[in-house]
Structures are given as structure tokens and as C-alpha cells.
Amino acid sequence: MTEAPKTEKPKSGWLNILVDYGPVIVFFAVYKYYSPADRNNSVAEVLAVISGTVSFMIAAVIALVVSKWKLGHVSPMLWLSTLLIVGFGGLTVLLHDPIWIQVKPTAIYLMFGVVLLVGVWRGKALLKVLLETAFEGLSDEGWMKLSRNWGVFFLVLAGVNEGLRYWLSFGDWIAAKLWVFLPATFLFTFSQIPMLMRHGMSLDEKKDVLEHTPHE
Q1: 153 and 114 in contact (C-beta within 8 Å)?
Q2: N or C: which end of the chain has fewer CB within 10 A?
Q3: 208 pLDDT exceeds 90?
Q4: Among residues 164, 185, 187, 166, which one has the least CA distance to residue 176?
């Protein structure tokens, strides 16, 4: 009696992107919907932030469930990101202070950046662990360079986030999450393709690069 072949969960590039960035879009949409026309109305502004934060937390948990249900797994990065969203989001709701939702990306970027660069310093490509089996065929040297490059990029993003948090209003900072950080991350990801191909990534795997973009 032959054993029936196992069926793999289908891959979906758009579903991966939706799981990764959908919660941020939900937060932006809900915040904008409740955001007061008068920016000097601090009470209404805080209520808009809290409404967006609660929606953000719910959307993040839903994204995690969808990833497990539709894609068959939850990446370590998605687990960590969801935990931090719920943790910092909970502080925002309890303390009524939007700063916690703004500090969250900085905390994630700093943590990933430092961890990856310390791993490179110790001769370990920790990004390979975070991205699991992505980019099969990539050599150890390729993984090491990718970990180094992403480590530096994460530290740059942490600095940029702190600068934008200091100089921009909360609403403009939220817009920057979509119109600055998201395009910058995609562009940086695509900039790594030539290096990945030089170190063993096949042409067939180019389409999967965007699906495995590290994110906060």
C-alpha cells in the first residue's frame, strides 16, 4: 500500500505581503478615520491613536493566525513582531500615551540590528535562523553578508525612526511608516538580489525575495 503524497501549503506572495504589512495599513486607516480635524484637540487625538492601536493589535493577531492557516507556518520574526505589537500597544492603551507605538519600531530595529551584527561578529549568520529555509542554495558566505547588510540597515532605520518621531507630528509619522519605511525596505531588499545570486541563489528564487523581507 503506497503512502499518499503530502500536499504542501500553497505559496502566495501577495498573502505574505498582506500578513506582514496589513496590520500597519489597518492602523493607518483607523487612525485617519478617527483623527480630529483640529490637531490641537489632544483628547480626540489620543482617542484616535488608541482606536488605531486596538485595531493594530487585533489585525496583528489575525495576520499571525492567517499565516499559520494559509501558509502553514509562522516565522520567528512574525511571532516576535506580533508579541511586541501587543506589548507596546497594550502600554499605549493603558497609559494613553502614543509614544509607545512610536518607540516600538525603534526597539525592534535596534534589537534585530544588534543581534544580527553580534552574530556576524561571532561568525554566525542569524538571519538564516530567522528566515528559516528561505533562499535555499545560498552559501554560508552569502548568508553572512545578508545578515551583516540587514543588521546595518536595521540600525539605520532605528535612527531614521527616532528622527522622524522627534520632528514629525504623530499623524505625519504614521504616514511615513507607509510612504518612507515600506518603500525603503522594498528597495533595500531588491538591492540585495545581485549579491544573493553571486552566492548561490537561483534565478527561480528571485520571486521569493519579497516574500521573505524582514520587517518590524
Answers
A1: no
A2: N
A3: no
A4: 164
Question: What is the C-alpha to C-alpha distance for residues 198 and 68, in angstroms, rounded to an integer?
Answer: 32
Phi and psi, residue 3, nearest 5°: -85, 135
CB 39 within 8 A of CB 45: yes
**CB–CB of 210/11 below 8 Å?**
no
Eight-state DSSP code of residue 135: S
- CA–chain centroid gap for 161, Å, is 14
Rounded Cα distance, 84 and 61, in Å: 11
State the pTM of this model.
0.74
End-to-end CA distance of the chain: 48
Q: Domain segments of the chain: what residues?
A: 13-207
Question: How many CA atoms are closer than 13 Å to the CA of 131, on its beta-carbon side?
Answer: 23
Q: What does each C-alpha distance from 167 to 103, 164, 191, 207 come to in angstroms?
A: 14, 5, 29, 37
Given a contact cutoff of 8 angstroms between Cβ atoms, the answer to whether 47 and 96 are in contact is no
**CA 88: distance to chain centroid?**
15
Instruction: Indicate the DSSP class of residue 138.
Output: -
> Please, are residues 99 and 56 in contact by the beta-carbon 8 Å criterion?
no
* Cβ–Cβ under 8 Å, residues 139 and 191: no
Q: What kind and span of H or E run contains 184?
A: helix 182-191
Q: Is 123 helix (H, G, I), strand (E, B) or coil?
A: coil
Summarised one tens digit per residue, pLDDT across range 89-123 is 998 888 888 888 899 899 989 999 999 999 999 99
